Amino acid sequence: MTDAEGDATRSKTITWQDPRPQAGQALTMSGLDYLNAMMDGQIPAPPISSHINLEMLEAAAGTVVMAATPDESHYNPIGSVHGGFVATLLDSVCGCAVQSTLPAGTAYTSLDLNVSFLRGLTVDTGRVVATGRVTKPGSRAAFVEADIKDASGRLLATATSTCLVFPVG
């Protein structure tokens, strides 16, 4: 099968591990310990990582840094990277930044995500780096800001998020 320009159809194989065992394990550790175990390869990355070529680079209390590399499978109908790729990356760093502040037995979920798209992405953009920073931790809600930059340090997108924080068990 070929497209309008005669290029061959491409395919992408995505593999992942069942995330449910790790999710249970997350509740037995502090959020920061869990994220560090994931970075060290002791715990598999979540399935979304394989979809957007996501890699966690750093985790400290209240701050998480991740990188992702868009490819053609992330394109929208107008030939650029879909905004969902950007939103997913921003949601990931926001949520994990909150997770890095949580004690064992505590979970979170996103309540909102407000994204500002400042520049478009294509495959030529290459690897992008996202940083999430907790601006106000809390026992019921946490507030986060995040940004995405390209290899030259140009700001591509920003976000703010509120996460619900709750005990589990």
Automatic annotation (TrEMBL):
Region (Disordered): 1-22
Record Pfam families: 4HBT (PF03061)
Domain Thioesterase as annotated: residue spans: 79-156
Entry keyword set: Hydrolase
Family: Belongs to the thioesterase PaaI family.
Name of this protein: PaaI family thioesterase
